[in-house]
């Protein structure tokens, strides 16, 4: 347990020292979400700005009025609002894929990573990360399909009883198991990504194999760390919603924005905390010496120094 | 001499009159005038039928075998030589009209993407005897009065060689076999639960000079005559049974079954349920005609909610008793059906199904509370005021939706009568509007239930539009007058089959107003009601002066307001104009023209204009354009956009969390 604690706190230390990454990613997502909500914003302003009926949405939240708004022909099809939001969510995902190598390198570094090194790491690893992502989706997709299939079958079987709570708890337990298994796969690929970046490993399959071995051998420590952080994230989400509900007046747009965005920022920080934990673990477990690459002396220096963590 | 002529009279009678009467079947089997199931010393309805049934339920294969003795009193005023019967369970067959419509439109949340053999239901007549006339089993003919579906077997007709004379009686002895479907709608089994609805051959209604016996349709419900029911039901001994009427006996049989006997007076349908899992909660409601025994049959997992259900039920009964009239029956059974079963939310005389979940929060009124209110309301608008649900669906569902609106708003508050959870609210009116606004111009309310454009149009017109039509009518005649009219309608037409005109004329009578202009549009037509504030402006009177400096309170303005009637529906309306010095002006517009302009000259600018400021017109399809402010208020849109943006960001982070 103390090892887990050390790992979690080491991760927290790394993430805390590199808060700027979280902030930049958050601002990126905020900007994308702003663009994604532009259509919704325009449509809502066009209908609500001069209508007294809109007060039912400002001083409270009347669900019937909201649904009525969304079904107005002049609001346009719902897809007109959802598609841009989804598109920018995908853009944020691609941006994360692109910039994550730089973040991992920054986490492994004991000094503030120069901008050129950050971008160089991003550029150098982009194709590797794409391949890792594709492999992750294949493996996680297959595993998730099987698990959800089993879960569905069990839920159907449970549904044959008159005990209404049984299917619910089967679903709950099933979802928890799927979550844990997918978290394990995520840890595995997080370690593979870390190795790809820190070792400058072009052969992605080797990193995947290495990540798999490390995950298998240290499953308890890593999974505990990830789950603890996930629970913290859940607490942040619930706390954010409660604060929003309890403190923010219904008509306070600014208050809702601050609480909502603070919650989202903290949630994003949780994921970066997990990634930092993986980096901390990787650096600790690094038994083999790092082969110095003449083309990237900064890497070698960074890793050599960091491995003493 | 009269005495001397008597033999001749007798002879003539014997020669001419008796043969004429001989062609009629003469049976004197009066309908019982029992009152043990009602809080009344005398029968409440003109009893046309008496059903005596002896049924045995086979829980293993969800089938039932029964004998039915139906006594029918011919009160039509003319001889009857044919009788149609509903065989509703035959609707649950792949080629039936019910299933074809269900497949086409979906019904009760199901779309029948594939045929499931468990959905099969059947009602097979094994023998059919007319007492005194013989066995007609082989002479029964399926008819399909509503469509040309030759495969539909939900209406069967028997023709009698000897007509039943006016005021005469006829008795049918029918043996039948039921195969219940897994509940796809209203009736059937689910796991080891069964709800027996529409389960016996049921004679049609002689109405307006003809038999009214429609096929079973996917949306429409039922129509039947009042009478007396005596039902014996044999079920496995571990089953907990509930049914319409009062339980008058229960005996265990040597074969491991028990026979439960029920009696009901002045009802027009009989339903029952059985499950080994029910837990029973008994309570009593003191109605104005006497005590009503409440029997709540709960699923064990929902037991924690039973007191809440009892409380809501009694609140509803109290409102109906005070506002519309007494509930005269001695019992009311509220059934909590098996979880996930489409038997939820259904009404039968003295027997209703609600439905809930184990996790239902207190502020979620749209779940069990609304179901209880709605189905109890049907005890009035269907149960006692027994309208034709096939042809006038709006008269049971819609009037009920209207009274539901009133009762739920009274109990839970107008803006939170549907939902009051975590700051998210919703009222019954909002719900009715959602039913209606998407299908406002598709179908009139007055239409045969199976002939609507689709499922949404049926729901929108019968439930939503009717409720909104009556709420809008409140604005025309006044809320108190409307309540008096509803009370009058109930007391005048309970235990009868009123028509739409009976209802509409009652409102006109009580209000003392000719409301044809309204009914023709709202009930019989499809014009859409939509007012909008087209534009507003305020211009300085001395606009032509160069370097004019406007000063609040000093500068005089000419303000213009344009109101536009976008829809074809014409109804007089009030308009409220507010100025920035606090002045308010009320205008009344008859809305005969498509638009109207109001102009004012004041030392104040327009602040806002609102059509129907008292929210009397609930039928208006678009409430957002009913008002216009001079200055834009961006806060509502910003608030919603903020919500939308937060959700988008969360989604993006969630995606990135798992994939990168």
Helix content of chain A: over 70%
CATH class bucket of the domain at 1-30 and 48-225 in chain B? Mainly Beta
- Please provide the ordered H/E string of secondary-structure elements of chain A: HHHHEHHHHHHHH
Q: Indicate how many domains the architecture of chain A comprises.
A: 1
CATH topology of the domain at 1-30 and 48-225 in chain B: Immunoglobulin-like
How would you describe this structure to a colleague?
The complex is a heterodimer of chains A (309) and B (660). With 309 residues, chain A is mainly α. Chain A has one domain (2-306). Helices cover 82% and strands 1% of the residues of chain A. The longest helix of chain A has 44 residues, at 115-158. Among the domains of chain B are: 1-30 and 48-225, Immunoglobulin-like, CATH 2.60.40; 404-522, no CATH class; 531-636, Immunoglobulin-like, CATH 2.60.40. Helix content of chain B is 27%, strand content 30%. Chain B is elongated, with a radius of gyration of 30 Å. Residues 1-23 of chain B have low confidence and may be disordered. The chains are: A mainly alpha (309), B alpha+beta (660). Chains A and B meet through helix 2, helix 3, helix 4, strand 1 and helix 5 of A and strand 25, helix 7, strand 32 and helix 12 of B. Strand 1 of chain A pairs parallel with strand 25 of chain B.
């Amino acid at each position: 347990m103390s090892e887990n604690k050390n790992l979690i706190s080491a991760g927290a230390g790394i993430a805390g020292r590199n808060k700027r990454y979280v902030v930049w990613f958050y601002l990126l997502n905020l900007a994308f979400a702003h663009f994604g909500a532009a259509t919704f914003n325009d449509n809502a302003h066009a209908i609500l700005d001069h209508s007294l009926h809109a007060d039912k949405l400002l001083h409270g939240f009347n669900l019937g009025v909201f649904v009525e708004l969304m079904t107005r022909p002049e609001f346009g099809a719902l897809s007109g609002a959802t598609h841009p939001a989804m598109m920018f969510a995908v853009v944020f995902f691609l941006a994360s894929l692109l910039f994550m190598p730089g973040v991992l390198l920054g986490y492994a570094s004991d000094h503030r990573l120069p901008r050129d090194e950050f971008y160089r790491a991003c550029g150098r690893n982009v194709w590797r990360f794409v391949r890792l992502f594709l492999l992750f989706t294949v493996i996680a997709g297959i595993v998730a399909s099987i698990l959800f299939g089993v879960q569905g079958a069990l839920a159907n079987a449970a549904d044959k009883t008159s005990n209404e709570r049984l299917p619910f708890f089967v679903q709950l337990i099933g979802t928890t198991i799927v979550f844990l298994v997918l978290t394990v796969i995520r840890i595995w690929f997080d370690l593979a990504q870390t190795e790809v970046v820190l070792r400058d490993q072009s052969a992605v399959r080797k990193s995947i194999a290495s990540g798999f071995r490390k995950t298998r051998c240290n499953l308890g420590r890593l999974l505990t760390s990830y789950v603890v952080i996930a629970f913290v994230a859940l607490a942040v989400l619930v706390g954010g919603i409660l604060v929003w509900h309890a403190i923010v007046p219904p008509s306070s747009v600014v208050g809702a924005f601050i609480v909502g965005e603070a919650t989202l920022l903290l949630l994003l920080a949780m994921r970066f905390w997990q990634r930092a934990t993986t980096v901390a673990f990787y650096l600790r477990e690094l038994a083999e010496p790092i082969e110095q690459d003449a083309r990237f002396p900064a890497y070698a220096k960074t890793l050599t120094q960091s491995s003493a963590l | 001499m009269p005495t001397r002529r008597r033999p001749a009279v007798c002879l003539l009678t014997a020669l001419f009159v008796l043969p004429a009467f001989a062609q009629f079947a003469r049976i004197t089997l009066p309908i019982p005038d029992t009152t043990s199931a009602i809080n009344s010393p005398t029968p409440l309805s003109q009893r046309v039928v008496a059903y005596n049934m002896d049924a045995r339920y086979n829980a293993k294969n969800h089938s039932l075998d029964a004998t039915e003795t139906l006594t029918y009193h011919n009160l039509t005023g003319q001889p009857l030589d044919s009788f149609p019967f509903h065989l509703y369970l035959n609707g649950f067959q792949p080629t039936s009209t019910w299933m074809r419509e269900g497949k086409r439109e979906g019904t009760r949340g199901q779309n029948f993407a594939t045929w499931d053999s468990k959905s099969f239901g059947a009602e097979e007549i094994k023998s059919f005897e007319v007492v005194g006339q013989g066995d007609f089993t082989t002479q029964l003919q399926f008819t399909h009065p509503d469509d040309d579906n030759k495969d539909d077997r939900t209406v069967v007709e028997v023709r009698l060689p000897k007509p039943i004379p006016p005021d005469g009686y006829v008795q049918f002895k029918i043996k039948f076999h039921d195969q219940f479907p897994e509940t796809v709608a209203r009736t059937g089994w689910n796991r080891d639960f069964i709800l027996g609805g529409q389960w016996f051959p049921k004679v049609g209604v002689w109405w307006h000079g003809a038999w009214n016996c429609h096929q079973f349709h996917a949306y429409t419900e039922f129509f039947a005559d009042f009478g007396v029911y005596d039902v014996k039901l044999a079920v496995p001994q571990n089953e907990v049974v509930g049914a319409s009427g009062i339980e008058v006996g229960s005996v265990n049989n040597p074969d491991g079954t028990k026979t439960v006997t029920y009696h009901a007076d002045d009802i027009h349908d009989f339903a029952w349920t059985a499950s080994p899992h029910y837990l029973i909660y008994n309570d009593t409601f003191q109605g104005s005609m006497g005590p009503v025994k409440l029997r709540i049959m709960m699923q064990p997992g929902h037991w924690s909610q039973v007191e809440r259900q009892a409380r809501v039920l009694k609140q509803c009964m109290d409102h109906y008793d005070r506002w519309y009239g007494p509930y005269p029956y001695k019992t009311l059974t509220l059934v909590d059906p098996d979880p996930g079963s489409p038997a939820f939310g259904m009404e039968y005389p003295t027997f209703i199904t609600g439905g809930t979940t184990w996790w239902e929060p207190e502020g979620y009124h749209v779940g069990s509370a609304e179901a209880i209110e709605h189905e109890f309301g049907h005890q009035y608008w269907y149960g006692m005021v027994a309208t034709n649900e096939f042809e006038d669906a709006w008269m049971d569902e819609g009037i009920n939706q209207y009274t539901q609106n009133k009762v739920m708003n009274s109990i839970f508050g107008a803006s939170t009568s549907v939902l009051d959870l975590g700051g998210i609210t919703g009222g019954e009116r909002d719900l009715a509007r959602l039913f209606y606004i998407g299908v406002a111009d598709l179908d009139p309310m007055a239409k045969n239930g199976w002939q609507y454009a689709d499922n949404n149009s049926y729901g929108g017109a019968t439930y939503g539009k009717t409720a909104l039509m009556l709420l809008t009518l409140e604005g025309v005649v006044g809320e108190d007058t409307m309540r008096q009219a509803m009370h009058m309608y109930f007391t005048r037409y309970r235990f009868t089959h009123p028509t739409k005109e009976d209802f509409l004329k009652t409102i006109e009578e009580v209000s003392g107003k000719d409301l044809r202009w309204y009914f023709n549009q709202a009930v019989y037509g499809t014009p859409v009601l939509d007012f909008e504030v087209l534009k507003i402006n305020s211009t300085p009177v001395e606009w032509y002066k160069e370097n004019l400096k406007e000063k609040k309170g000093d500068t005089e303005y000419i303000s213009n307001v344009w109101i536009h009637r976008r829809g074809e529906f014409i109804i007089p309306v009030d308009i409220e104009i507010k100025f920035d010095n606090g002045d308010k002006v009320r205008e009344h517009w008859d809305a005969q023209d498509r638009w109207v302009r109001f102009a004012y000259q004041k030392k104040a600018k327009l602040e806002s204009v609102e059509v129907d400021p008292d929210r009397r017109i609930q039928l208006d399809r678009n409430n957002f354009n009913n008002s216009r402010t001079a200055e834009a208020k961006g806060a509502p849109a910003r608030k919603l956009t903020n919500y939308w943006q937060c959700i988008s960001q969360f989604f993006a982070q969630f995606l990135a969390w798992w994939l990168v």
